[in-house]
User: Which sequence fits this backbone?
């Protein structure tokens, strides 16, 4: 198992010029966003989703082809946060106890002592999660929703700030284990990363060159921007953001329609096998608020809901064999859903 830990607490380094003594939580998040966008070129949606997941106190699954900066993006977010970071490379020989920790026998006093595993960190990057077998995936997914780990008769509570960001590569087949569909619900969002465009590709090349040159010389350390206090304050502001009653109703109708697809027409009835759970309803509300807050709005608009719904439903809708045979993907199903439910 390959792991890397960094504890950037009290780490010297430079803070962005926009951060002063009387900066608000929103200023801290804008500064973190700007820094991440400088490091992850042309993937603004991914950067925004990483911050939304942090604001909504949820876990994120990032899927995309190799080399699209999935790992880099998660690391960039971790570098912005004042907390400890753990990277876990998932491999076929990993065991659940390698994540959770184990009871270790102590001969001196004839007792057992708990040795916490790598999940006991603030930010956990579960890299290439589909390369570990189901037992290990389950241990992770369970810890994600319970926020605690039970070993023997003892329960160990995970840190208050606990965020898992998992990456997976959809094109690998051999030696990979697909995540259990029923447990995917525990991810707040699933973000799909796509190839950058021409302009971004050019900028990535320039950045890679600059970084390679920098590595030969001295590199200025960057201080983490987001303190636990700033994250807590931001989360409070997100929860308090105004969401009008008709929009709450809109959220509920969108989710209910996935459970009663016939109400959206014969096509949808044919395509959707299982709809989304109440976790999806809660996630849609929280993420729409988080996006509105991050975009400096005073209230949530229908566009916020429509923008985040793809990442919330993508992994939660189970499509039928007919849908797959017709080449229909969840994006198309969500498009159809949005067309059927009237916007308030
Ligand atoms: N949008 C981007 N901005 C900046 N650098 C990028 C971007 N896309 C790719 N790169 C470069 O490509 C390298 C590969 O990125 P990374 O290792 O994060 O990919 P990955 O998506 O995790 O791949 P894999 O699925 O193989 O693990 C990075 O080190 C970076 O130099
Ligand atoms: Mg990677």
Assistant:
């Amino acid at each position: 198992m390959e792991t890397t830990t960094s504890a950037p607490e009290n780490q010297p380094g430079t803070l962005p010029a926009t951060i002063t003594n009387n900066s608000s939580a929103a200023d801290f998040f804008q500064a973190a966003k700007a820094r991440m966008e400088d490091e992850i070129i042309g993937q603004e949606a991914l950067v925004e989703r990483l911050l939304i997941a942090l604001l909504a106190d949820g876990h994120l699954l990032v899927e995309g082809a190799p080399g699209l900066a999935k790992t880099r993006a998660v690391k960039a977010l971790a570098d912005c946060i004042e907390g400890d970071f753990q990277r876990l490379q998932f491999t076929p020989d990993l065991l659940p106890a390698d994540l959770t920790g184990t009871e270790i026998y102590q001969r001196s006093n004839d007792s057992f002592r708990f040795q916490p595993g790598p999940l006991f960190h603030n930010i956990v990057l579960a890299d290439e999660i589909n390369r570990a077998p189901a037992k290990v995936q389950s241990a992770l997914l369970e810890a994600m929703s319970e926020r605690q780990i039970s070993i023997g008769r003892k329960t160990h509570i995970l840190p208050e700030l606990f965020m898992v960001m998992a990456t997976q590569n959809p094109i690998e087949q051999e030696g990979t284990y697909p995540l259990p569909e029923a447990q995917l619900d525990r991810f707040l969002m699933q973000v799909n990363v796509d190839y950058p465009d021409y302009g971004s590709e050019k900028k990535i090349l320039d950045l890679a060159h600059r970084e390679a040159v920098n590595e030969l010389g001295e590199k200025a350390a960057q201080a983490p921007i987001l303190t636990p206090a700033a994250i807590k304050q931001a989360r409070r502001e997100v929860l308090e953001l105004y969401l009008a009653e008709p929009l709450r109703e809109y959220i509920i109708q969108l989710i209910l329609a996935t459970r009663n697809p016939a109400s959206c027409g014969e096509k949808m009835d044919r395509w959707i096998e299982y709809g989304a759970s109440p976790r999806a309803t809660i996630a849609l509300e929280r993420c729409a608020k988080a996006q509105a807050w991050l975009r400096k709005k005073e209230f949530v608009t229908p566009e916020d809901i429509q923008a985040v719904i793809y990442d919330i439903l993508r992994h939660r809708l189970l499509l039928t064999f007919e849908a797959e045979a017709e080449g229909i993907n969840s994006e198309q199903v969500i498009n159809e859903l949005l067309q059927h439910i009237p916007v308030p």
